[in-house]
Write a structure and sequence with these properties.
By secondary structure, the protein is an alpha+beta fold. About 25% of the residues lie in helices and about 20% in strands. The chain has one domain.
């Protein structure tokens, strides 16, 4: 498997794709800070990705995830998604790092994020990935990764492509049921189709590691 089999798109091309798919409500215009992607790419990142501010997409993070999944289903025609999506939230560390980037790009509806699509942390559990983050690194969640797949659909071309762990998410059911605590949402290529599991007993656990999974991460410039 070639980790660079998919082709990186320019930020403006990504913005155009997101706009055409109607990610934002009609009253919000897609705009990015041009200076943000003129910076030197941080070590560990593959390229710059256009990630909408989820709070402009929906009222809750889980609703924003659901909207992106619906857009993926429409755009690709092959997405199967399930699980307890309504219990998804961002990990505390991811929230903190996104706040830093948001402050740097204040006033723009789409954030420019330096990121890698999973190969950097291949064959590592989410717990391990979080332990070895560099100082400016953070996990990406289902909303962010869903947007990256929307703008780079060839990232999932076949069943052989590296599957994705959403290390920037948490999925905890109410009532502190131990069997569910720490479930990690996943994107996988399954029988020629893209599948998303938002958290269930069958979802991979935070301590599990497999060679065919990787965790996408972002970097604060």
């Amino acid at each position: 498997m070639n980790e660079y089999a998919y082709r990186h798109k320019s930020i403006m091309r990504q913005v155009l794709i997101l706009h055409r798919l109607g990610i934002f409500p009609p009253n919000i215009s897609p705009c990015v800070d041009i200076k943000a992607y003129e910076q030197r790419l941080p070590a560990g990142a593959e390229t710059w990705f256009a990630i909408p501010r989820w709070k402009l997409v929906a009222g809750t993070y889980a609703k924003a995830v659901e909207k992106v999944l619906n857009k993926l289903q429409y755009a690709r025609g092959d997405l199967d998604f399930s699980g307890r999506i309504k219990f998804l939230s961002q990990h505390e560390h991811t929230i903190k790092k996104f706040e830093e980037i948001s402050n740097q790009q204040n006033g723009y509806s789409i954030l420019v994020i330096a990121a890698q699509f999973g190969w950097r942390h291949r064959d590592r559990s989410v717990q391990k990935v979080r332990e070895i983050f560099t100082e400016n690194e953070f996990g990406l969640g289902a909303f962010e990764i869903g947007c990256m797949i929307l703008t780079h659909p060839d990232r999932f071309f076949s069943d052989a492509d590296l599957w994705i762990l959403c290390s920037g998410n948490e999925c905890n059911l109410p009532g502190d049921i131990p069997i569910f605590t720490g479930d990690i949402p996943i994107f996988i290529g399954h029988r020629g189709k893209l599948k998303f599991d938002g958290g269930s007993p069958s979802t991979i656990g935070i301590k599990e590691a497999y060679s065919f999974y990787g965790s996408p991460t972002g970097f604060v410039p």
